[in-house]
Amino acid sequence: MTAIPEDADTTREAATREQQVLERIDRVRRRKARLREDHITLCHGAGGKASQTLIDAVFLDAFHNPHLDPLGDGAVVGDHAFTTDSYVVTPLFFPGGDIGDLAVNGTVNDLAMCGARPRHLSAGFILEEGFPIADLRRITASMAAAAHAADVQIITGDTKVVQRGKADGCYITTAGLGVFDHPVRPSAVAARPGDALIVSGPIGDHGITVMLARGELDIHADITSDTAPLAALTAALIDTCGTHLHTLRDATRGGVATVLNEICVAAGVAAVIDEDAVPVRPAVRGACELLGIDPLYVACEGRMVIAVAPDAAQAALAALHAHPLGHGAAVIGHLTEDPPGLVLLRTAFGGTRIADLLVGDPLPRIC
Amino acid sequence: MRFVDEYRDSDKARALAGRIAALCEPGRTYKFMEVCGGHTHTIYKHGLEDYLPEAITLIHGPGCPVCVIPMGRVDDAIHLAGQPDVIMTSFGDMMRVPGGDGSFFDANAKGADIRMVYSPLDALRIARDNPAKHVIFMAIGFETTVPSTAMTALRARTEGIGNFSVFCNHVTIIPAIKAILDSPDLRLDGFIGPGHVSSVIGCAPYEFIARDYGKPLVVAGFEPLDILQSIYMILRQLAENRSEVENQYARVVPWEGNLKALDVINEVMEPRAYFEWRGLGFISHSALRMKNTYADLDAEHLFQVPGGRVADPKACQCGEVLKGVLKPWECKVFGTACTPETPIGTCMVSSEGACAAYYNFGRFTRSRVKEATVRHSTAQGVQP
């Protein structure tokens, strides 16, 4: 008779208990989150779990309707897509762009992610008393150039000035209207097991650029923001893949990992990502290593995550590579059925782990 | 990337894993504690446990600087931040730690001015920029971060900056390890020793662990291959019936430590008689305070600090987790009442905390993750 290791039974028991605990946690996570805070904290604006809870508990609760409830990048109404976004970046000017580029490109991209062709924008400005007109001209020049590049017109707007100290220089809100001239309606719920997951280029450039531009870290790197309009890329993808194109999401706040989590929860699928396959520039990776931040959670302003039927993946990739903004596109993984709602990562080291939603902004580690 | 990729090479990892498995005695199980939260983070972030045989269990130790701060000290900091014309500063990890009445984020939402800094020198800069305010730096961390706090105090004195002080919560690792070794409910076979702490204190202070308790300790670096190699070194000691202090992280850690840094610490700070650790209770000589000669830079001397003791929430089992008696998921509230968005205990806050690391990275049985990823690799035609 072979000797049975004395701990074998307890190891098995522990594994069963662990399984039970994890199932219980999964049930808890599926429950609607409760908003516990009495005041808004910065976490509510970071795009992670706290933001989702706030949106669910306050905004959806008050406004809910069939157009809003899917919480896509924009609402689809008949042949039109409609969206809005506010911009509050610090500093206002950073390498590769400024708040003006962001305000146009961000809203253009939200429309593009619905599969629509962006046409018209509105722009609302909240300006702080004392804000230099020269800076405002610089911002509006960027907006005009970005609108021209994205082939949209800014056709209506609004200006408010508040007392010194009541705002941080300049805030911009844009809304955008786009049209559909095809039947493709990509959305998070349309993602399917088996789909290939593609990112359209190296990730994290924007977030790290802005973090370094704040000058608090004393790290200098040759990185510029990736802010760019993605409508030409999405149009090419729609032309190439048609209805095989299932999901488009721009990886803004919370980065690629957050978008993947949203897709997995919405579609009830799992994502399996190869960390090695995710394109990250060396300078971004270096800064992330120094700060203890995972590039998967760093914001981009000109990159998107694409879920496409496996047969169309190579064609999609070729279409992306043909465009300067999609030059660095890469397949980073696939969707699968089980375990629904989770993003799994095969680490470059050869291990496995999950990549969950963050609670707030990624914070640099202490040591 | 140089100095990173060579320590994350999966071929080398596979080779080491083979040697680790070969050293495990059939039928025997091993429990190793990684003392440092940085190691816990590395283990989960890279999925390192996938390389270990089932016979080896890693126990997450108390070396997470944020995790060991008791709730009372968070309340004290919020109280200090509430004094007129005070700006409180601390590391980002502290911002979400719950005190008896909310976290720093909550305090800010109610009007306090608590700012996140990346180094104590940033706090000093804020003091320089705001001469009408008093800036307090809430110093936390093990010996790793003590020298930078001490240097900042020296700099403040040299520059004659009078509106800056330190709220000192620095703790020391050796008394905590001793408390764990003396704890009756834990059986450990060896220690993965802290790397950055040792770059300051050196390796000699651990010798009592090998000598008096007969446990091997290997000071380890923070890349995944460092940790695998340390596990191999501990197993080799056990196989050869040795218990010694060995240094795997010699590229950073000199055996005698950083004497200059130790001098600076001794100039500015001295051991406290005792200090409360979250979950572990009061441990004597386990923390540092500003010396009387630096009272003008000591927030505890300049201000009234309530010093109230807040009992940990009943349901919270952080102490058991910090001692390694419980695995994170074995805590009653893990993942249900206590999650990263609504942490009850500190272990769920910091990315170095065992519970947060397990929740964010590991919250899924390894077998199922492996199954899914292997399926995916096969579909791709890639050898897993």
UniProtKB/TrEMBL annotation, chain A:
<dbReference type="InterPro" id="IPR010918">
    <property type="entry name" value="PurM-like_C_dom"/>
</dbReference>
<dbReference type="Pfam" id="PF00586">
    <property type="entry name" value="AIRS"/>
</dbReference>
<dbReference type="InterPro" id="IPR011854">
    <property type="entry name" value="HypE"/>
</dbReference>
<dbReference type="InterPro" id="IPR036921">
    <property type="entry name" value="PurM-like_N_sf"/>
</dbReference>
<feature type="domain" description="PurM-like C-terminal">
    <location>
        <begin position="192"/>
        <end position="339"/>
    </location>
</feature>
<feature type="domain" description="PurM-like N-terminal">
    <location>
        <begin position="74"/>
        <end position="179"/>
    </location>
</feature>
<dbReference type="InterPro" id="IPR016188">
    <property type="entry name" value="PurM-like_N"/>
</dbReference>
<dbReference type="GO" id="GO:0051604">
    <property type="term" value="P:protein maturation"/>
</dbReference>
<comment type="similarity">
    <text>Belongs to the HypE family.</text>
</comment>
<dbReference type="InterPro" id="IPR036676">
    <property type="entry name" value="PurM-like_C_sf"/>
</dbReference>
<protein>
    <submittedName>
        <fullName>Hydrogenase expression/formation protein HypE</fullName>
    </submittedName>
</protein>
<dbReference type="Pfam" id="PF02769">
    <property type="entry name" value="AIRS_C"/>
</dbReference>
Automatic annotation (TrEMBL), chain B:
<dbReference type="GO" id="GO:0070025">
    <property type="term" value="F:carbon monoxide binding"/>
</dbReference>
<keyword id="KW-0408">Iron</keyword>
<dbReference type="InterPro" id="IPR002780">
    <property type="entry name" value="Hyd_form_HypD"/>
</dbReference>
<dbReference type="GO" id="GO:0005506">
    <property type="term" value="F:iron ion binding"/>
</dbReference>
<comment type="similarity">
    <text>Belongs to the HypD family.</text>
</comment>
<protein>
    <submittedName>
        <fullName>Hydrogenase expression/formation protein HypD</fullName>
    </submittedName>
</protein>
<dbReference type="GO" id="GO:0051539">
    <property type="term" value="F:4 iron, 4 sulfur cluster binding"/>
</dbReference>
<keyword id="KW-0479">Metal-binding</keyword>
<dbReference type="GO" id="GO:0051604">
    <property type="term" value="P:protein maturation"/>
</dbReference>
<dbReference type="Pfam" id="PF01924">
    <property type="entry name" value="HypD"/>
</dbReference>
<dbReference type="InterPro" id="IPR042243">
    <property type="entry name" value="HypD_1"/>
</dbReference>
<dbReference type="InterPro" id="IPR042244">
    <property type="entry name" value="HypD_2_sf"/>
</dbReference>
